[in-house]
Design a protein that fits this description.
The protein is α+β, with helices and mostly antiparallel strands. The chain has helices spanning 5-24, 29-40, 47-56, 80-105, 118-127; strands at 27-28, 60-67, 70-78. 61% of the residues lie in helices and 15% in strands.
Length: 128
């Protein structure tokens, strides 16, 4: 069964969203997952593989913080490469969103009835 456009869009912007969240402040994976779940209804299980990939790509680095109520938490922070990726992806997203918006905002052309062509319609308009 093909994925819906909503799922595809979410997957497409997930890295950008994580980079943006980490640009605000360091965070641990569960907190990132909770924020994304609330904001764009993204499942928690999607975050952990993404965080590992971002770490191996050098976009984030980790450090441990002791927790008074349990085990230490692994926090993520952006690296310089992560900030550059955020800047690049933000620009790409802006250009893409503007392009989509311009397509969606364009007025619809009048429907052509069956059996006529655009040439027929233009000719009738010129005759009037």
């Amino acid at each position: 069964m093909p994925e819906t456009i909503e799922i595809q869009l979410k997957k497409g912007v997930l890295t950008l969203c994580v980079l943006a969240l980490l640009n605000r402040h360091d965070s641990y994976a569960y907190e990132i997952a909770s924020t994304l779940s609330d904001a764009i209804d993204m499942g928690e299980g999607t975050i952990y593989p993404l965080m590992r990939r971002m770490q191996s790509d050098g976009q984030v680095e980790t450090y441990l913080v002791e927790s008074p109520s349990g085990p230490s938490r692994k926090y993520y922070r952006l690296t310089d490469a992560g900030r550059r990726a955020l800047d690049a992806q933000t620009a790409e997203w802006g250009a893409f969103a503007r392009a989509v918006e311009s397509i969606l905002a364009a007025p619809a052309e009048p429907a052509v009835s069956a059996g006529t062509t655009n040439d027929d319609t233009a000719e009738r308009g010129a005759e009037q």
